[in-house]
Amino acid sequence: MFLWVDDKVGFATPVLGSWNPFFPIHAEESNIYQEFYGWPQVAETARKAIASMMHSSELGNDLQVQQFCYGQLISLAHVADFKSMVSFAFVDFIVPTVYSSSPIMITLYCEGTPNPLKISIALEELGLEYKVRKINLFNHEQKEQWFLDINPNGRIPAIVDTDENGRELNIWESGAILQYLVDRYDKDHKISYPQGSKEYWQMTSWLFWQVSGLGPMQGQANHFKMSAFGDYPYALNRYVNETRRLYRIMDKALANNPSGYLVGDHLSIADIAIWPWTTAYKYSGLSQIDEFPHVKDWMYRLLARPGFEKGRNVPSPHLYLQLNELSDEELTKLGKERSGWIQEAMKRDAE
Ligand SMILES: N[C@@H](CCC(=O)N[C@@H](CS)C(=O)NCC(=O)O)C(=O)O
């Protein structure tokens, strides 16, 4: 990748192969680039490159600068013939050329189930590039040693990224991954709120509510509805009733927030963490969503966002909304067909 930056005017030109469009980037008074459409970390790389060049008293013809891009060390940031480029360009221009020999990318380990979908949706909403490695749950790939080396808990999602020193980072547990993505890549708070703000703590509260409450409770409800062989009315009622209670809490919160999001005035990881689970309401024993009109409205409104549309179909077409159209009998039949792997996974987990 090549990146040309005009420090004064506030334009950056990423040159990817022969593709060479101009993107406006917002330069604040401090001249620190805050935002580069969908690519804040590239702007940050550019800022660092400029800063290090400006501090370099001897700008030789073959200046080499080590920089980071997408969290990975750019093997060689090479400013060829820097002096002549400056004189060649407008007098005010600083034109660092930064290239990466290996494109840096997050790898997402996933399948089209609710927990991994949170991450693909967040990545899409952030406009980040990422690689997808589908994990075949039916073949218990999540329990294979190579994957346990990434996530010792043997569950999806997990991601692998690279830290600022070029070291590999494995992050697992969907809530932790969401927090990591916004901490590192959401500097302009597209899907989060500034740390320490009231909204930040509300968002964090809902995130924990989802990972410790809604996810496990609804997960148990769908286990007893769809996967348990035998009839366990006590367990099914307990978990479905708890799920219903949690949906009621959420319905009330949405009714009380005029923005239509769970927290503040825009989308956040609180909405993203919950959304994939609500699309699976019938799978979890809630016969219809009309009982929670604000949840229903919110669910379909988020569905219309391109990031949700793209993210929910990773790594394969999203199924859960369609499953809500099935009759109880059809769902039970489907559950019986699918539950074999869950029984087998339970057996292995118990060993
Ligand atoms: N608390 C975990 C739950 C992860 C989880 O249970 N993932 C499911 C898919 S949605 C899974 O990997 N199931 C496979 C198994 O149970 O072996 C998280 O939020 O990431």
TrEMBL record:
PROSITE patterns, per the entry: GST_CTER, GST_NTER
Domain GST N-terminal per the UniProt entry, residue ranges: 103-189
Annotated source species: Talaromyces amestolkiae
Family that this chain belongs to: Belongs to the GST superfamily.
Protein name: Glutathione S-transferase
Entry-linked InterPro entries: Glutathione-S-Trfase_C-like, Glutathione-S-Trfase_C_sf, Glutathione_S-Trfase, Glutathione_S-Trfase_N, GST_C, Thioredoxin-like_sf
Source species, domain of life: Eukaryota
Domain GST C-terminal: 196-323
